[in-house]
Amino acid sequence: MPIDSHYYTDAKTLEPDLAAFMQAIIRIPSLSSKEGSVIERMRAEMLRVGFDEVSVDPMGNLIGRIGSGPYVIALDGHADTVDTGDLSLWDRDPHSGDIEDGVLYGRGASDQKGGIASAVYAGALLKKAGIPDNITLYVTATVQEEDCDGLCWQYIVKESGLRPDLVVITEPTSLRIYRGQRGRMEMEVHTSGVSCHGSAPERGINAVYKMAEIIADIEKLNERLVPREPLGKGTVTISEIRSTSPSLCAVADGCTIHLDRRLTVGETEESSVAEILALPSVQATNATVTVLDYAVPSHTGLTYPTRKYYPTWDIDEDDPAVLTAKTAYRAAFGDEPDTGFWTFSTNGVAIAGMHGIPSIGFGPGHERFAHAPNEQVEIEHLVRCTAFYTALVETLARQQGE
Ligand SMILES: [Zn+2]
Predict the structure, then answer these.
(1) Distance from residue 130's CA to the centre of ligand 1 (Å)
(2) Which residue numbers are catalytic?
């Protein structure tokens, strides 16, 4: 059935400009902490389509504003991408921005420059139509998300004092309304041994052998983690192992494993550390557990250290933010929306998980293309997200006016 809402038809008229802007930002590589050029290009587009105020904060996040009403909504997307990976797995240049049969290709297509492009064009539509008096709309293109999800929003809330009433996270949701995600954290477990000449290992204590028992226990721990509604099961996996020794002809005197822990409802930093410390092998070997820190300079040179703990968040199906989003979806598309959750992590860990700001997810593209070769997004998704964001702002304006 054709979609006949004015939100959709208005967004559709902007499709050529929206697609051209998307191509332009896909063609600018923007690894974490190297987003300067793409932020500059996005800033130019915001100014071109008529945002009232556009600024780059000291961390390098781009913040565009339209309107100055009391109800504040932010559409957030991260401007950084992961690297391309093995080029032989790609059918075309990862920065081509090629469009073929309505699909745009390139690193960042789904994760997640499309969300930013759609948000900027929603701003363009709202500016043209006249943004409702009771609304301030921010569109944020944030940095370092792929390296340290949410750090940008820790900075925006704590240092810039921007605390929206509602945030839409524009990461890919396949045009569904998302209600949360598992959290995550990064830990290291370390065992110590005593080195000696490798020709007589019985004189020493091998830290790698101590770790072997811990590795087996962690594999079993992952199997017994308990699923909890609505996010399912947390997970733990070993993502790296390294050891030290005075030479390759010596017994290892230290061994460290890196843990990627995904957190479901009710699992926290404290509970996850306690769970590792309680493993029989960890106790028997006196291994230590450390939650890691992140302290990498942003593209502007600002370092904003944080612990690598990214809390879980979820909101109810009948939460006001979800109900409003559903109303907007019906207004934009004349159809019932699906809801869901992300498998991966987003800036929501800080926005909703740390700061408790009401948040929903709605974005173009599909999670399965994130970090994968031949990443892609349907141009139609970009148009529909522009329509949805516009409808959401007008729905909120109407609700605030009631
Ligand atoms: Zn992402």
Answers:
(1) 31
(2) 80, 145
